[in-house]
Amino acid sequence: MAAGAQHHAREIAEQGYTVLERTHEPEALERLTKIIQQILEDTGLERPYAAVPRELSKNLVVNPTGLAIFQLVKLAPEAAPLLFSSHLLEAARAALGDDMFLELTGGSVSDASRPFFTWHHHIGGIDVEGVRQRGELPRLQHCERLIAVTYLHEIDAEGGELLAIPRRLGDPMDPRGDERDPDWPGAVTIRFPRGSTLVFEQSTWHAVRPMQRPGLRMFVGGYFTAQRAPRTELVDESLDGFAGGGSDFQQLLAQRPRR
Q1: Cβ(203)–Cβ(167) under 8 Å?
Q2: If you ran DSSP here, which 8-state letter would residue 230 be given?
Q3: Is the pLDDT of residue 259 over 80?
Q4: I need a surface site. Which of 42, 45, 112, 154 has the fewest CB within 10 A?
Q5: DSSP-based helix, strand, coil % in the chain, nearest 5
Q6: Helix axes 86-96, 246-254, angle to 10 degrees
Q7: Alpha carbon of 203 to those of 48, 54, 127, 141, 143: distances in Å?
C-alpha cells in the first residue's frame, strides 16, 4: 500500500476526514460538469434549492441540499469511469480493507440561493435518513463507511467553505450545539482546489457555508463500505448487473454483498 494511501487512512481515523487534492484532470472535470448540468437542465428547475423537499423522480429530489442526485450511474452510465481516482481507491482500501464495495453513487447541484447547510452526518450510508430520524448516534470503534465526493468547482470563501468537527474513531459524537448554528466549538474550515476529493468517515459532523458568487456548486461521488459494516435496509439495485465503468469500478461492484 502506498505511503500516501496510509497517510489518508490515518487522517480518516484520527480526524474523521481527509482531502485528496486534484484527483481529477481538467478533461474529466469538464465531462462530469456537462453530465450534471444536463441532469439539472432536464429537470426544468428555476433554481436548484427547496426549503421543503420535493421528489422529482426516484433518482432526483430538490431539497435543502440543492438538487440531490441518487443512483448517478443509472442516470448517466458514462460517468462511471470518471467518478473515482486510483489515489482515492487506494486510500479508501487502506481505511476499509481490500474487500470494500460501492454502496451508492450520486451527486449534488446547488447555488447561492442555498443558505447555510446545517450540521449533519452520514451514519448508515444509504439508510442515513432513517438513522437521522431515529436520532441514533452510535459510537463506532472501526471505520465501516466513507463518503467520498469530488468537487467540480473551487471550494474557498466564495465557493461555500466546508466546516467539520475533527474526531477520532470511537470518540463521542454528540452535537456541539444547534444544527443550524455555524459556530460550533472546535469546528475547522476546509478549503481545496477544483477537482479535489473530500472523504468523510460516516460519523463526522460537517456543514457548508453559503456560496458567495454566482454559478453552480457541484459534486459527484459515492459511499464506500467495508464488508464488516451491518447490512443496510435499502440497496442501490441499479448497480447490480452494471457492466461499465472499467476494471476498477467493476471490482467495487463484484464485492457487493449478495442479498
Answers
A1: yes
A2: P
A3: no
A4: 42
A5: 30, 25, 45
A6: 20
A7: 27, 26, 13, 11, 9
| Predicted pLDDT at 1 | 57
Q: What is the DSSP string of 157-173?
A: TTT--EEE----TTS--
Angstrom distance (rounded) from CA 255 to CA 161: 34
The answer to whether 69 touches 60, Cβ cutoff 8 Å, is yes
Q: Which residue has the cell 476546509?
A: 190
Main-chain dihedrals φ then ψ at residue 145, nearest 5 degrees: -155, 140
pLDDT in tens, 155-210: 999 999 999 999 999 999 999 999 999 999 999 999 999 999 999 999 999 999 99
Give the C-alpha separation, 154 to 160, whole Å. Answer: 9
Which amino acid makes up residue 49?
Y
Q: What is the pTM of this model?
A: 0.95
3-class DSSP state of 250: helix
The average confidence (pLDDT) of the chain is 96
- 184 is written with which cell numbers? 460550533
- Give me the sheet containing 206-208, strands edge to edge: 117-120, 206-208, 162-164, 188-190
| Residue spans of alpha helices (H) in the chain | 3-15, 26-43, 72-75, 80-83, 86-96, 128-134, 246-254
Angle at 224 between CA 220 and CA 228, to 5 degrees: 165
pLDDT per residue as tens digits for the range 136-157: 888 899 999 999 999 999 999 9
Rg (alpha carbons) of the chain, rounded to whole number: 17
Distance separating alpha carbons of residues 239 and 73, to the nearest angstrom: 8
CA angle 231/234/240 to nearest 5° reads 90
